[in-house]
Amino acid sequence: MTNSELLQYCMNKPGAEQTVHSNWKATQIKVADVMYAMVHDVEQRPAVSLKGSPDLADLLREQHKDVFPSAHLNKAHWSTLYLDGSLPDSQIYYLVDASYQQALSLLPEQVRQQYVR
User: Fold this and answer.
1) 117 pLDDT above the threshold of 80
2) What's the CA gap between 105 and 96, in Å, rounded?
3) By CB neighbour count within 10 A (0-12 exposed, 13-18 middle, 19+ buried), where does 47 fall?
C-alpha cells in the first residue's frame, strides 16, 4: 500500500479534512478538527500514525515488528505502522476505521451526528 492509496481511503470518510504539518512533513487527516490519521514517511518508507486504545497499541507492537510508538504523538495511544510491512492491507484499513470511530466519539453528539451515515 502507498501513502496515496491510504490517503485516498482516509479522505473518503465523512467530514475528512487534510492539513499539512510542515515541521513533520506529514499530512494530518481530521474530522471536525480531531486528528485520526497522519500519513508520512518514516525512514523513507510509507507510514501512517493511528490512534487506538493503549491495550490495542501494546498488542499490535508485540505482534508486529512494523508497528511502533509514534514519534511526535502520545505514545500510549498513537502507533505508527509501515504501509509496506507485514500488516495486511485489510488490517490497516480496519485500524484506520477504528481510529476514525475513536475521533468521532470525542466529538459532541450534535457534531458527531453530522458525520454518521
Assistant:
1) no
2) 14
3) buried
Q: Look up residue 25 and give its three cell numbers.
A: 512533513
The Cα–Cα gap between 101 and 46 comes to 23
DSSP 107: S
Q: Give the number of other Cβ atoms within 10 Å of residue 40's Cβ.
A: 21
Q: For residues 49 and 38, is the Cβ–Cβ distance under 8 A?
A: yes
**Mode of pairing for the β-strands spanning 26-31 and 16-21:** antiparallel
CA angle, residues 102, 1, 33, in degrees to nearest 5: 30
Q: How far is CA 114 from CA 15, 31, 50, 104, 109, in A?
A: 8, 11, 22, 10, 9
21-49 residue pLDDT tens: 888 789 999 999 999 999 999 999 999 99
pLDDT digits (tens, 9 = 90+) for 61-108: 999 999 999 988 999 999 999 999 889 999 999 999 999 999 999 999
